[in-house]
Amino acid sequence: MLIALPPWVPMVISGFVVLNVVIGLVTYITLLERKFAARMQSRIGPYRVGPHGLLQPIADALKLMMKEDIVPTAADRRIYNLAPIVFLIPCMLIFATIPFAPGLGVADLNIGILFFLAVSSMEIVGLFMAGWGSNNKYALLSAMRAVNQIISYDLPFIFSALVPVLLTGSLKLGDIAAVQQGSLFNWFIFYPVIGQLAFITFVVATLAAENRVPFDILEAESELVAGFRVEYSGMKFALIQLGEYAHMIGSSFLGALLFLGAWSGPGPEALGPVWFLLKMIFMFLVVTWIRWSFVRIRVDQILALSWKALLPATLALLVSTAVVVVWRTGGF
Amino acid sequence: MLDQNTTTRVEMDWSGPERLQMNMGPQHPSAHGVFRAIVTLEGETVVAVDAVIGYLHRCHEKLSETLTYAQYPSIASKTDYVAAMTSEFAYVMAAEEIGKFEVPKRAQYLRVIVAELQRIASHLLWLGTWCMDMGGALGGGATIFLYCIRERELILDLFEALVGARLLYGFFQVGGTRYDIPDGWAQKCRETIAVIESRVDEYEQMLEDNAFFLARARGVGVVSRELAQDVGIAGPLLRGSGIDYDLRRNAPYSSYQDFDFTVPTEKDGDCYARYKVRMQEFRQAVAIIRQALDKLPAGPISSRPALKSVAQIRIPKGEAYARVEGPRGEVGSYIISDGSAKPYRMKWRGASFSNLAILPHIIPGHKVADVVAIMGSVDPVFGEVDR
Amino acid sequence: MNAEQARASLASTFGVEVAAGVPMVVTVAPDRWEELARYAKETVGCRFFNFLTAVDWKEQGLEVVARVDNLDDNVGLMLKTRLAPGVTNCASLTPVYRGADWMERECFDMFGIRFDNHPDLRRILLEDTWEGHPLLKSYAVDTPHPPYR
Questions:
Q1: How far apart are CA A263 and CA B50, in angstroms?
Q2: What is the pLDDT of residue A299?
């Protein structure tokens, strides 16, 4: 007979499972990115470690765990040590609200998407702590740029994520996904004009929120040499990388859910999560493709693009979505 | 040294006139070698630049006083190691000018072919590293860097077949060249430059349609005509600022007058103008190589007997300044000879040394990100700067 | 002005014999060095500053050599001035040509020539604590140098 479990036990178990799956995904998605980038640059990528480089992420993880943990003498120890953790927690927390299949998720909150957007912008606190605590001019400069950039691009990110919310009428991620089931053309990306525009602005804002080229002014290897991460080594560096890629994957999941129909796809219901995963990988590869093709633009150009172009555009898009929704439901 | 009082600890009040001194280099992914720039920042804007060089100083000029005219050309390539052929060219031409040695026609044409191939290889490296500076080693810049390196490998293969070395050659000697082209080399050369020509078209298209690239390169690092001449920069920097001067046409050497080519010039003086000049130079170099291969005369490759001893070449008393149009500008060698087997004084006019002197004049006013873009478009090689 | 006119006017203004050839060599006394450079830039039109260097003639003193070019008329001028034996001061050309800045710093570094009116005369290629001036003939090639800190 089943023992009556306290209600928090399933949550803890599902949270634990999701965290582990995410970490596993993160390690292998780095390999995917490296292979993809290598093929774009007419080379092969990791090949020797394991068959076709499949054991490369494990080797990298082991290496990072065994590295010496160097702390600069003048660094602010408490902030320096806390920063990777404060950076990592929001990046992991965003997976709490994503439903991987109807009913299969850690916590499908009523305000799911609001929670996601709010928590994902909390990572900037960890980022700034890392830049400040390192006591390094490069790290500080990059942390300032990061604050600038993420604040500027959060608004377009929110507005373009709100377009599917308006089209659904609910903040719950499970509902947004459910509305897109059925046929292919229910997907919000196929919604005439508004869907495509919202998808494009969502991708641009995602690139900026995750500090990917062309908006990676914050790390800018050729100027600031790894930016706010410059003083971190070993496991702390691994935590920061983990957080970054986890955030990337989380945003890709969100994009797949908002625009690409989440788990809808041909075949039986049980294949739903597989389709979701594939769509997430597609979003990730779109971002990676852009990353490996463009040069970066300067910080003042990034801010100009956000405040002068993207924000008014997404605002106008949101307003017109609202008008369209009211018109469609016969409100006029 | 600099005024020590201006070194402030990190003051985070950006509303005031607090200035931050930041050190870029000498170990830096985009310093193009060993270069230290102490930039004074006000917010994100650079207010002053102090360029500290000399990390690669090996005192070539003193070294040349201890090496004979037969020994030095192999060492000369270590100044501009990215374009080693043109470095050797200047020294050897200066020695020939003092000694009034005739260089046979075939050797002259071979020198032209090799110099133009070197120009293409050097510009490929420039394009790759400049885009990498702007795009990041983990980003779009690395993509075009790898494509350019792939093309450069084709040319280095040609050099390896000719000389035996990939980067630092000992191809030039006083009186002509040291090696002749092997069988089948001319055909391989034609195929290579055809491939490179088509790929350069591809890269140009890829970059010019890219709004981000144009935003980074247009209007950045403008060098006025007057400043360009006053400081003494040369090569694509001079031609990008509107001054139509190319040594191959204005002061022809080594039979450049036999070839038909145009000299690209742009008016704007910004990074984009210099980029356009260099892209055009790719095509002109390809045209010159084709003409030289077609008209290559038969004959000896050197007017001097083969080298049997190091002190074999003796040059009468005199002095001469010989210059070549290298990929970076005017590379010159001023030799004063006292009649013995070694020079009395040898001065290298390094193109990059004069080009780099323009940085303190044009960088103030730009943002930090532009510093790397400008440095990339100036294209310094520190072997030449520091000698 | 073209090469012939330049030769004639230089010979007449500075009272020196200017040999024909490419480039033309003009030798003046050190006290007219800056005047010569200014004349070359403004009157002869040699606005392109090529290089500036020095030669150590042992007992006969140091010689400062500069080359300037007129790009439009294709005129090259080699300006020379012989400093008296034991003299290590020379007028600076930085008020006339901005490019002389780094070149003169290199001459100071390598030969010990102090240029008057130079805005920032310090060593450029060697470190500041280096002793000696390497390109002088009195500096042996195998002089042990102070180790870098």
A1: 58
A2: 76
